[in-house]
Design brief:
The protein is of the alpha+beta class. It has 2 domains: about 50 residues, no CATH class; about 40 residues, no CATH class. It is about 40% helix and about 20% strand. The chain contains 4 helices and 3 strands; from the N terminus they run βαααββα. It has a 3-stranded antiparallel β-sheet. A hairpin with a 5-residue loop joins strand 2 and strand 3. The longest helix has 17 residues. The radius of gyration is 17 Å and the shape is elongated.
């Protein structure tokens, strides 16, 4: 059995704010300066080297969880806004 959480934000969706986004960009640029990033540096390798906290975004969607049985059958537990990324995953 596999359990996957598609959203865990609570009752109201909460997208990333402009300030949070700008703080993340600032952190990425600081990391680039520390590592001597330049035009010759491979962008994908640099992105892969970033810590998860600035490489990914978290939160935003409300609760949606799926349970997949060993036979591959999926069950949806709650249908918050997290069901949207689950729907994309199904396509």
């Amino acid at each position: 059995m596999q359990i996957k959480l598609w959203g865990v934000r609570g009752s109201l969706p909460s997208p990333t704010t402009n300030k949070e986004y700008q703080d993340k960009i600032r952190s990425i640029l600081q990391k680039a300066a520390e590592t001597g990033f330049n035009r010759e540096t491979h962008v994908d390798e640099f992105i892969d080297s970033l810590p998860d906290s600035i490489k990914y975004v978290y939160g935003g969607d409300t609760t949606c969880a799926t349970v997949t049985s060993r036979s591959g059958k999926s069950y949806i537990i709650d249908c918050g806004s997290g069901i949207r990324p689950y729907g994309y995953d199904l396509m």
